[in-house]
Design brief:
By secondary structure, the chain is an alpha+beta fold. It contains 13 helices and 35 strands. Strand 11 and strand 12 form a beta hairpin.
């Protein structure tokens, strides 16, 4: 789900009273609560930063762009207390790019202009992420490509047909209502410009693809200027395809190509315009055009070998693996050995071709290759003879009629007097296709283009005004460590829709296609290129990698350690430069003292590790919930005064530890993610006391804790 920013709405009366001069309710505590009077004595948060000691430190707030653009209460609160703003969702890819790849940055541009005009810095969030992506567009770019064949050999599949019953004009009238006579829409020219429906969209759903329309029409004479329009709506984003109809005298069938249909319900409109011809339309048909299916080999499995002893169950013959090949030396005895076990070779019903990469020291015959899906009497067992020649060759073996199951592959030299080295077994299935998958290289090239287009368009919209970015967001998985103990990156195989809080069914993992190294390097290079191209000074641009759970105690800050290791890997090309680390810090205050101390210890350790990295350090999404001594999450309505003050102390701890540990020249600042407590209906920490202000925009004790941390009090 989206990590929503929390700004609750004030009542209509308060908003109406603040049309010109805001009631600065956000400058004090709730007057109805005892012990909150002192909060009115606090200055705005940004006033507590000692600029002589911390010249670069930014007090930041995450905010919804539309709320800020209204220039009302939220705008006033943000400008008063903070000097940097970040939008929670407006600058994410899915907010700016639709399902067809169209990009719109109106909200972003308005937000940036409003903020910079108010003297605020804007921090960009985010360029490369797996969540909140325009999945439909991105996946359409790497869909299977139709086979390149002669267009005349394409197969036509009838999709929709429209005929007519005698009577008045049967559709919505557009100033022209020709009746249906003798089963045909009968149009007589009047000299006026004319058009009329001949097939309503509600009856003509077309999937994405290329189409042929056959229009059955009779004319009393040849005529020019007649058109046929096919459209899937009437708005500005609707697809509209118009083709000319070369009208000839008499009864004709007009074949009209309609390429590039994107999908939807398509109205069909005949436009005689001002043509001076009587027309009778008796039928229209739509055919989808597709390439004919051809038989192709689709790779199912490739088995290679690592040096060492024979890796499979022995059957009286255990040839070792030498130089990446199963090395068989004849002994004179009858011999056979596994080369691909059934547990690694599940095949579905169909026809297969198997390739052996095999080297022999001499010509030899009487060798067999067997595949079988069991050892009982009802198992399928197929064997083919194999004659080998001296040298290394690739041998092709056809196995039709596989019934399905787990198939052992067995090479049987039998009594052949030849030394054999088997390097690999490749299993392919014969399939009939009219499209083939893009190669990994083609997908990478296409998505590199798409990422560059997206980042370039965003940088153009920002006009060089946004000088710091989360260039990559939430890359580290938090598990599956490699041999160096470094956690793996997130990938699609670990994604469960709705299973974790940071994804919401719109995930697209760039790293699946661009690779763990290149997806980050590509994003960094694109950001730097387009920032400079749009008026930015290259040295001004600061790029951060942002992630969550970097303060985690359960893995002893393992995720942060892994992120630092990955940054070194990404920068190992000598070109890529990542300027900073962003730690989200969606944390909780624990009323169990032992747990709280562990959390605090690892927050301190996190800041120490970040400082030691030499990178700029930013707390990027700070908010705080509350967990009671029994381990239960506490909702806002149930928080006691003691607990409110404990949360304030925790805010003070986080802010003061940052300022104590992070060197001044590595400080970027701290961003508060939630200004106010979360409504119960919120998708982000719903009903929790996550704000520095309450739901009515009164300061809380947490405001004082944050301010005290900044001031060093």
């Amino acid at each position: 789900m989206k990590k929503q920013l929390i700004f609750t709405a004030l009542g209509a009366m308060l908003l109406a009273s603040c049309a010109d001069t805001w009631d600065r309710v956000y400058e004090g505590g709730d007057p109805q609560k005892e012990g909150y009077e002192y909060l009115a004595d606090y200055d705005p948060l940004k006033e507590y930063v000692d600029r002589s000691k911390y010249p670069n430190f930014k007090v930041a707030l995450a905010i919804e762009a539309n709320d800020y653009n209204k220039q009302e209460l939220v705008y006033a609160l943000a400008n008063s207390n903070f000097n940097e703003l970040v939008t929670g969702n407006a600058m994410k890819m899915a907010s700016c790019v639709d399902d067809k790849g169209n990009m719109s940055f109106g909200t972003v541009t308005e937000f940036i202009n409003n903020a910079t005009n108010a003297g605020m810095d804007v921090y960009g969030h985010t360029l490369a992420w797996h969540s909140q992506q325009p999945v439909k567009w991105l996946t359409s770019l790497i869909k299977d490509k139709e086979l390149d064949i002669d267009p005349d050999s394409k197969i036509e599949t009838l999709v929709s047909t429209k005929t007519y019953t005698d009577g008045p004009f049967p559709f919505f009238a557009m100033g022209c209502e020709p009746p249906v006579i003798n089963g045909a829409i009968h149009f007589e020219p009047t000299g006026d410009w004319s058009q009329f429906f001949i097939f309503p969209g509600g009856e003509n759903a077309l999937a994405e693809g290329d189409y042929l329309a056959r229009l059955y029409m009779t004319s009393d004479k040849a005529a020019g200027g007649v058109q046929l329009t096919v459209q899937n709506g009437w708005g500005g984003d609707a697809q509209n395809v118009t083709v000319a109809v070369p009208v000839e005298e008499g009864e004709q069938v007009y074949e009209l190509n309609i390429p590039g249909i994107t999908g939807g319900n398509y109205d069909v409109i005949l436009k005689p315009q001002t043509a001076d011809a009587t027309l009778d339309i008796s039928k229209i048909e739509f055919y989808k055009l597709e390439s004919p299916a051809v038989e192709m080999e689709q790779e199912v499995r490739v088995k290679t070998y690592e040096d060492g002893p024979f890796p499979f169950y022995p059957m009286g013959c255990e040839p070792p693996v030498v130089n990446g090949a199963i090395h068989f030396v004849p002994t004179g005895a009858w011999s056979q050995f596994f080369c691909l076990p059934g547990g690694e070779n599940t095949l579905t019903e169909g026809d297969y071709v198997i390739y052996l990469d095999l080297q022999s020291d001499k010509d030899a015959s009487n060798i067999q290759f067997t595949i079988q899906n069991g050892w009982g009497g009802d198992a399928q067992n197929m064997s083919l003879p194999l004659s080998v020649t001296a040298g290394r060759q690739t041998y092709k073996l056809k196995f039709p009629g596989v019934t399905g199951g787990d198939y052992d592959c067995i090479l049987k030299p039998q009594t052949a007097d030849a030394t054999l080295d088997l390097y690999s077994v490749t299993v392919t299935k014969l399939v009939k296709l009219n499209a083939i998958p893009l190669t990994p290289e083609e997908k990478k090239d296409t998505l590199t283009w798409a990422m560059d287009k997206w980042i370039g368009a965003m940088m153009t919209a920002c006009e060089g005004k946004v000088k710091a970015w989360d260039v990559v967001n939430e890359a580290i998985s938090g598990g599956n460590p490699d041999s160096e103990g470094v956690f793996a990156l997130q990938h699609s195989e670990g994604y469960k829709p709705g299973g974790t809080w940071d994804v919401g069914g719109d995930a697209f993992y760039w790293q699946d296609y661009l690779g763990d190294l290149d997806y980050v390097r590509t994003a960094v290079a694109s950001a730097r290129k387009h920032f400079e191209a749009n008026g930015g000074t290259p040295s001004d641009l600061k790029l951060f990698v942002n992630d969550y759970n970097l303060e985690s105690d359960w893995d002893n800050n393992g995720k942060l350690k892994s992120l630092i290791a990955w940054i070194k890997r990404w920068e190992a090309d000598g070109v890529t430069k990542i300027d900073g680390i962003g730690t989200q810090m969606h944390i909780s205050c624990y009323m169990n003292p032992q747990i709280q101390e562990s959390k605090k210890k690892h927050i301190t350790q996190m800041f120490e590790l970040m400082a030691a990295s030499g990178k700029l350090c930013r707390v990027s999404e700070l908010d705080m919930g509350l967990v009671d001594a029994a381990g239960n999450t506490v909702k806002t309505a149930d928080v006691t005064e003691e607990q409110h003050k404990a949360m304030a102390e925790m805010y003070k701890f986080v802010v003061s530890e940052y300022l104590r540990i992070i060197p001044a020249d590595q400080q970027w600042g701290i961003c508060q993610w939630c200004a106010t407590d979360a409504p119960a209906s919120s998708g982000w920490r719903g009903g929790e006391p996550v704000g520095l202000w309450d739901s009515n925009y009164y300061r809380k004790h947490t405001y004082a804790g944050f301010a005290d941390g900044l001031s060093g009090k």
